[in-house]
Amino acid sequence: MTALVNVIVTLGMLYVVPAGLRLIDPAGLRRTARLWPLPAVLGAVSLWLPRGGAATVLAALYAAACLALAARAPSALPRGRAPGPAEVAVVTALTSPAVAGTALVAERAGHRLFGFDLDILALTVPHFHFAGFTAALVAGLVCRAAAPGPGARWAAYSVPAGTLLVLLGYFVDDWAELAGAVVLTGGMWAVALTTWREIRPAGRDRTTRALLAVSAAVLVATMLLALWWAAGEATGIPHPTLTWMAATHGLGNALGFALCSLLAWRRLTADHPRSADHPRTARQETTP
């Protein structure tokens, strides 16, 4: 499991985060996105070293970059009004790598942070790169681009809420974590449905539409697995092992959802530069 998780996390560090930052704010985060591979390489190298001082130092440098990114999250909030669903999703995306980076430092140091097993800390790293950062980012983009309605708003609120509930479940019990998994799954399925119905048809070319279709379809299966695992942990019913979950749920979300989504949204925003700030513009211009 370790090698597979390391590959997934490396993808998240080196490509997913900087690509996502360009989608969040192409102008304001351009410098951060351009420089991100520097600390990301250090974090990725730390994954492959034995636990100890060298791995911990490299992980700490990556975590520092993640914390600096989280410090910029308040700038994404509007002034003078309550944040909307897309803005809540963006703030969640910007802060999630800090959770991943903190868990990485503890795991590389061999320290059971808050009493968690090292395997759980290791899996927290990909979870908050993908379920935290990428899922929240895509939920926000979908909310902006879709026609006004409860589905897209539910997605943009429930993905951050579900991610937070899963995190809180770590500290409470398996039933709380199951509740978080239910909320997160509902949000991810709302993202998938809205992507399939509204965003995919707006893709100008076949490749973009195919990437969006794959990202939506994959979520149906991977989040069912997440529910199965969480229910098994809470109730004791037979459920997949962590190794099996990494090879199915983890790999599917990393490649089928996250990578395909980011590639598709980059193509959408390349076709319509204004859509980086107002993605609904792209939908209106591409929909007959």
UniProtKB/TrEMBL annotation:
Transmembrane segments: 6-24, 55-74, 86-106, 126-147, 154-172, 178-196, 208-230, 242-265
Superkingdom, taxonomy of origin: Bacteria
UniProt KW Iron keyword: no
Keyword terms of this UniProt record: Membrane, Transmembrane, Transmembrane helix
Pfam families: YndJ
Protein name: YndJ family transporter
Source organism of this protein record: Streptomyces subrutilus
